[in-house]
Design a protein that fits this description.
The complex is a heterodimer of chains A (about 180) and B (about 525).
Chain A: H1 2-20, H2 35-52, E1 64-67, H3 73-78, H4 81-105, H5 109-131, E2 149-152, H6 155-175, H7 178-184
Helix pairs in contact in A: 2-5, 2-6, 4-5, 4-6
Chain B: H1 2-23, H2 32-42, E1 48-50, E2 57-64, E3 74-80, E4 85-88, E5 90-95, E6 99-106, E7 114-121, E8 124-132, E9 143-149, E10 156-161, E11 172-180, E12 187-192, E13 196-199, E14 207-216, E15 232-235, H3 243-266, H4 268-275, H5 297-303, H6 323-330, H7 345-365, H8 376-391, H9 401-407, H10 420-431, H11 434-443, H12 445-455, H13 461-464, E16 486-487, E17 492-493, H14 502-514, H15 525-535
Antiparallel strand pairs in B: 1-2, 2-6, 3-4, 3-7, 5-6, 7-8, 9-10, 10-13, 11-12, 11-14, 14-15, 16-17
Classes of the chains: A mainly alpha (about 180), B alpha+beta (about 525).
């Protein structure tokens, strides 16, 4: 009888522990080395170069929404880190959608491999942002508002936007990330 | 009049000043003029634009003074992608070589977006360009360039302060150019994202001129190379004694010294012999001459067994006539009466006896043509000499006629040295006299052979060498019997010349007997004799 009680209590304890999930996932080490992003930028530039030389089988089937890439430093610096992170993450999400659409409509094999690379790099960029303790932001359905977006209809424009976004806002966000500033200073 | 003159002079001065200011060559690399002139050289597109910082932006173009219009005739419009266009106010500037510059400066820019620029002159587009602002940076050169020595030889540490542009210091790349002050090709070191570098491989004790310039690395941002900084000179440390080199040299020298010492020690005898050759000391040959008698030879002679040495020829060994010479006087093959050398009394008896026997035998068995055998006295003397020679010890160092002759005769029972040969010879001696052996051989060769075998060594047959030949001796002309003895101790060489004499014949016999023998050591005289005959 007492044994049964003990076993029951033990099982209950285990259930409770599993439910509370006391072991939180350990935080990722911050990826502060900008060479990772530089690598993504270089690969995006390669894709843009390949697109420029592509003649057939490399067009968008429909126009896509892409984020704004322009950076006005005065405005940028006035934004908080969270707002900046949100802006970057929503832009990445949009680009992901657009590039996936492009990949489905492109038939050129060389371009396909570049697009595969770019999509993987986008996911890695998200991981990098997560490692820098930026709060994860998933855009609601419909995407962000129009101020920060615009539409492109050609693959060349799309890839240009992709490159400029990485070089601009993403790079600025990472180079100014608080998690990395503490290590440096 | 005076006021007019003053005004004129003032105006003249102002014009001069203006001219001076305009025509002065830009010396300061941060000068706007310097950048303009640099871009005019490097940028082919028009208008030429550059950004000096995060927010400012400058565009300009050049026109000939003669064809340029008023600045109001021109319009500079720009439009970012998906945005409305804007106008930029222009200002003009007179440049060198009769050119005029039109400049547009913006205080706010947008980066990472295409910028479309259009320049019109009276509604006619003269220039059109699309660019990205962040790709047209032309920064100021690095500041506070400093060069210092490091602890190492041939190195200099160069450091500087990067241009003050926020967010972009990680995207900078630099070039450091250094060259010896007294001439030489300048070398360039590329540096990425760092603001200091250590130059290596420099010559010690040399003054180097170092300068640097910067540029954005071209991934996120791009632009043109900045102007070079003012050169800074620094001397590299002089070539000093490297401790490591000294240490290595010391170790190597120690090792070489030890090697040489070891070599010398292992070959010291050889080296000593070469450098300090030993003076030959005849002490070993003359026992007690130096130690007991202090070098007095006569005294020493008087106290030793001088019977063997009582020969006038002995005292000057060099002039000692060799047996060769002595015997030549004998001419055994002729009718010379007696040998010049006196015989020992101890040997007289048996020799005489043997000689008689020999002579009788000879008379019996002498064949034609061997008149030699009819001269017993010479033969007898020869045998005597041989016997006497053999009696003496072989290892005797000094050579003498008698000694050599004695060694030739190994028939006596008396022993001098403990050589194998003599022992064996003693065995023979017990059996018979040599002459008997000599004549016995004629009876049966087998006996001789047995005798040989019983000797146990080839040398034993030296006794048998005295055998009487079976066949006729080859008639030879009257000649000399030479027994040249060059004595150097143990070995004795005999050179016999051909003659119709007994010993020649005997040599023949010797040869026949020994032709199958293996000679490995210094042999007794007789065997040598055979060899000598071979040589003949």
């Amino acid at each position: 009888m007492s044994q049964k009680i003990v076993r029951g209590l033990f099982a209950l304890l285990l259930i409770v522990l599993e439910w509370t999930q006391p072991c939180l996932p350990s935080p990722l080490r911050p990826v502060c080395d900008l060479r990772v992003l530089n690598h993504f930028i270089k690969e995006a530039r390669d894709a843009e170069t390949a697109m420029r030389s592509c003649l057939e089988g490399c067009s968008l089937s429909e126009s896509v929404t892409v984020p704004q890439t322009r950076v006005d430093f005065d405005i940028w610096e006035r934004k908080t880190a969270e707002v900046q992170a949100q802006e970057v993450q929503s832009g990445l999400w949009l680009l992901h959608q657009a590039l996936s659409l492009l990949q489905s409509s492109v038939t050129n094999t060389a371009l396909q491999s570049h697009l595969d690379n770019s999509l993987r790099n986008l996911l890695s960029t998200n991981a990098v942002l997560r490692s820098l303790n930026f709060q994860e932001y998933v855009p609601t359905d419909g995407g962000p508002d129009g101020e920060d977006t615009w539409r492109v209809s050609t693959a060349t424009e799309l890839l240009q936007v992709y490159v400029n976004f990485l070089r601009g806002k993403v790079h600025l966000l990472l180079s100014g990330a608080q998690a990395c500033q503490q290590d440096v200073s | 009049m005076k006021s007019d003159n003053l005004k004129r002079s003032l105006g003249f001065c102002m014009v001069l000043l203006v001219q001076l200011s305009q025509s002065s060559a830009p010396k300061n690399p941060q000068d706007f003029q310097y950048k303009v002139s640099m871009l005019l050289r490097e940028e082919p597109a028009n208008p030429k634009c550059f950004a000096e910082g995060r927010k400012d932006f400058t565009c300009f173009w050049e026109e000939d003074e003669a064809t340029a219009g008023h600045v109001g005739q021109y319009s500079f419009t720009y439009a970012y992608q998906n945005e409305n266009s804007s106008r930029c106010p222009l200002r003009t500037h007179r440049a060198a070589d009769g050119k005029r510059l039109f400049i547009c400066q913006l205080n706010r820019t947008q980066m990472f977006i295409q910028m479309h620029i259009k320049v019109e002159r009276e509604s006619v587009t003269i220039h059109n360009r699309s660019l990205l602002v962040e790709l047209a940076f032309l920064l100021d050169p690095p500041r506070n360039l400093s060069v210092s020595q490091t602890e190492q030889q041939g190195q200099l540490r160069v450091s500087w302060v990067p241009p003050e542009v926020k967010y972009m210091s990680d995207s900078m790349m630099y070039e450091v150019s250094y060259a010896p002050a007294n001439g030489g090709l300048p070398q360039v070191e590329e540096v990425q994202a760092r603001s200091e570098v250590v130059l290596r491989g420099l010559s010690p004790g040399t003054i180097y001129m170092v300068r640097a310039r910067g540029k954005l690395d071209g991934i996120s941002y791009n632009g043109y190379w900045s102007a070079w900084t003012q050169p800074v000179s620094m001397e590299t440390p002089p070539a000093g004694f490297d401790i490591l080199i000294i240490f290595l040299v010391a170790i190597i020298s120690v090792i070489v010294f030890l090697l040489s010492v070891t070599l010398i020690m292992s070959h010291r005898r050889f080296i000593k012999k070469k450098i300090w050759p030993a003076i030959p000391n005849p002490e070993s040959k003359f026992q007690g001459l130096f130690t007991v008698y202090g070098g007095d030879f006569r005294e020493w002679l008087g106290h030793t067994n001088g019977s063997l040495w009582l020969r006038p020829a002995f005292f000057s060994s060099e002039e000692c006539p060799s047996p060769l010479e002595v015997l030549s006087e004998l001419s055994l093959c002729s009718q010379l009466p007696t040998p010049p050398l006196p015989l020992k009394a101890s040997r007289a008896g048996p020799v005489e006896r043997q000689g008689e026997e020999k002579s009788s035998r000879k008379e019996e068995e002498a064949s034609g043509g061997m008149g030699v055998w009819r001269e017993p006295p010479h033969d007898h003397w020869l045998m005597e000499q041989l016997r006497a020679f053999n009696r003496l010890a072989l290892p005797s160092s000094q050579s003498s006629l008698l000694e050599s002759q004695d060694a030739y005769v190994t028939l006596d029972a008396q022993q001098q040295a403990s050589t194998e040969v003599e022992e064996h010879l003693d065995d023979i001696m017990e059996e018979s006299s040599p002459l008997e052996v000599l004549f016995a051989s004629s009876e049966s060769r087998s006996d001789l052979g047995s005798m040989q075998r019983s000797s146990g060594s080839g040398r034993l047959s030296s006794g048998s060498s005295l055998e009487y030949p079976n066949h006729t001796w080859p008639p030879k002309g009257p000649g000399y019997t030479y027994m040249a003895v060059a004595d150097s101790g143990v070995s004795m060489d005999y050179s016999a010349m051909s003659s119709g004499c007994v010993n020649v014949v005997r040599k023949t016999q010797v040869y026949n007997e020994y032709k199958n023998e293996i000679w490995s050591e210094p042999r007794p005289v007789l065997t040598r004799q055979s060899q000598v005959y071979n040589g003949w």
